[in-house]
């Protein structure tokens, strides 16, 4: 009980602390003089001012950032519309060129043979519009993959569209387009941030992949490994996945490829 008695009586202080307290009392330092209080008050005022300045800067910066974001979005829409207008103009010029070419080639037997060869090459290069019965496969993010609490597992990524397009080719498709953009053997499907690009043109969900290939294409694709994989993604992660058939679908020509190689043929 002596320890408790010492604590209650105040005599249980360690000798070292007791000696230090005695020296402080002898020097007149109370440890809480007006100077120290003034310094503490000044520091608190300074911290308060810094906090207020930071809050003001954040509030001023938020509208500026929002305006910059809206300006960038407006520019993107404008550039997209300009690109679309130029593409339509190029398509019209290409159609006129095709009419003139056919007219010129029809004037001789050699020209007609060349036109047949050209038609086969045009079809393989997706350089001309095509029409027919189509299978349309539509995919989209799951509902949980959007909004403030978005989950990555339910997103459609560029590699998903690549796999879907390749699966349709393997199932017997003769022509494929994504959201109206025609696919070729050299078409690039890639991502930039959260956006999916087809030949550097952004796509907006849902992604409708239209394929020409006859009435049996939908059944063949649904039974393929790619079709089964997308049904698994639908059941596991909730992506939206739908297959339907449409009649009389027209797919546009692909953008004209850049000329990389050329040679002069010597007449035989």
Automatic annotation (TrEMBL):
Source organism, top-level taxon: Bacteria
- Name the GO cellular-component terms: plasma membrane
Pfam families with a match to the protein in the record: DUF881 (PF05949)
Question: Gene3D superfamilies from the entry?
Answer: Protein of unknown function DUF881
UniProt record similarity statement: Belongs to the UPF0749 family.
What is the protein named?
Uncharacterized protein YlxW (UPF0749 family)
